[in-house]
Amino acid sequence: MTNNYCQTFKQKIKELKRKAQNIEALLSEYVKTVDKKTEKEIERILKEIEEFKQEFKTQATHLIEEFIQRRENKNEKVEIIFDEKDGKFIIDGDLNFSSRTHLDDFPNLIKEITGYFCADNAQTINLPNLKEVGGSFWADNAQTINLPNLEKVGENFWTRKAQAINLPNIKEIGGFFIALNAQTINLPNLEKIGGDIYFNEDNSNLNSLIELAREWRKKGILKGNIKLCDKRGQIIQEF
Known about the structure:
Blueprint: H1 2-33, H2 36-68, E1 79-83, E2 88-92, E3 95-96, E4 110-113, E5 117-118, E6 124-126, E7 132-133, E8 137-138, E9 144-146, E10 152-153, E11 157-159, E12 164-166, E13 172-173, E14 177-179, E15 184-186, E16 192-193, E17 197-200, H3 206-218, E18 226-229, E19 235-238
Parallel strand pairs: 2-4, 3-5, 4-7, 5-8, 6-9, 7-10, 8-11, 10-13, 11-14, 12-15, 13-16, 14-17, 17-18
Antiparallel strand pairs: 1-2, 18-19
């Protein structure tokens, strides 16, 4: 019975090979039928695509340059890098927008900031395509923080007023994590917090947050301590 199955299998392989050869032969014949006019048309289309890509890169870079000019640290050098693979941008340097209360015009094409990002007075942080911040992330007064694709913050993550912190793809926070008044924290893919974690002592959901932090420490995710602060921001308890 086994030999019969083997023979049947071998026959199927031969049939597939024959069909593949037939398809290759048909493709070869098709290539031969492409005339000079068709070749030129294909070349024209490819040229238009390349021109469109270059125009997109130029226009998008210009828009991001205008956006970056609105930052506080204008004198600091920032390089705009275009990634050809995914058509998005890397900002090599720091972005400080601490005086702005709205950041609705943040370009969605920015996927990475190699330095720090500061928007301390912005009420809403909505950066749907940002994947990485090399330095610290400051959003002290933000009520809402939407960073669905953020995977890494190289140094500290600081938010004081946000009630809900939802970072579904974050894997690493290199330094400390300040979430003083957060009621809920959802970091399902978190692998590392390199420093301490901070909560307010009068946080109404403090017990649940401490339990979560202890679970992280038990798993080796939280490398530092759990610290409780008073209204002035002074540390009053550490464990």
